[in-house]
Write a structure and sequence with these properties.
3 helices, 13-stranded mixed beta sheet, alpha+beta
């Protein structure tokens, strides 16, 4: 005898709720591990695939993070450039050039950044979540914004086998473009200066002010 439709619907709802609970639990555990073990760095490969294309541009470099609020991206190939975010301040520069850019952002609202910078309880007010497993058995957390009309459609965060490090992050925007990151070889950092902008540069902000 097949179960009645209401029973199937209830079972599905329970499964979805359990999956969401696991997602928030694992995200909070990830943030706690990254904060406790940090600062950390990893090599990365980034790919941007425009809507309608099977492949796109790739870049690579090193990402460093010091939670709760600092992340740094040093792109090496094909074009060197760096970005640093600490709290609501951000800097960008190119090694060897005398001037960089400094600006204020809402880092907690930036796509991808909020997944690491905000506690799970706050993320739960912004996203619906579920979990799945990759072909290799790694945990994948799928997040979809609750608010309609934003640029982000879905984000997928893959964790390593212990759930203590991100292995991959991918998001698709409303136009169908896909940006993905693959992380490898996480290691501890001893150089706290990586989370301060390089000295000796002139910094310009959107208002045109220059600060040394």
């Amino acid at each position: 005898m097949r179960p009645p439709p209401v029973a199937l619907a209830l079972a599905a709802a329970v499964a979805v709720a359990a999956s969401a609970d696991e997602a928030w639990r694992e995200l909070e555990r990830l943030r706690s591990a990254l904060a406790a073990d940090g600062p950390l760095a990893a090599t990365f490969q980034q790919a941007f695939v425009p809507a309608g294309f099977a492949a796109g541009d790739t870049e690579s470099g090193v990402v460093a993070l010091s939670l709760p609020d600092c992340l740094r991206w040093d792109y090496r190939d094909p074009y060197p450039k760096s970005f640093l975010v600490c709290g609501d301040r951000a800097w960008s520069w190119v090694e060897g050039e005398p001037r960089g850019h400094r600006f204020t952002i809402e880092a907690e609202r930036e796509t991808g950044l909020d997944l690491l910078l905000l506690p799970a309880a706050e993320l739960a007010a912004r996203y619906r979540s579920q979990t799945s497993r990759t072909a290799g058995g790694e945990l994948e957390i799928v997040l979809e914004p609750l608010a309609e009309g934003g640029d982000l459609v879905v984000a997928n965060l893959v964790l390593d086998g212990e759930g203590r490090r991100p292995r991959a992050l991918e998001w698709r925007d409303r136009e169908g473009n896909v940006t993905s990151f693959r992380f490898d070889t996480w290691r501890e950092l001893e150089d706290g200066e990586r989370f301060t902008p390089p000295p000796g540069l002139e910094w310009s902000d959107p208002g045109g002010e220059e600060v040394r």
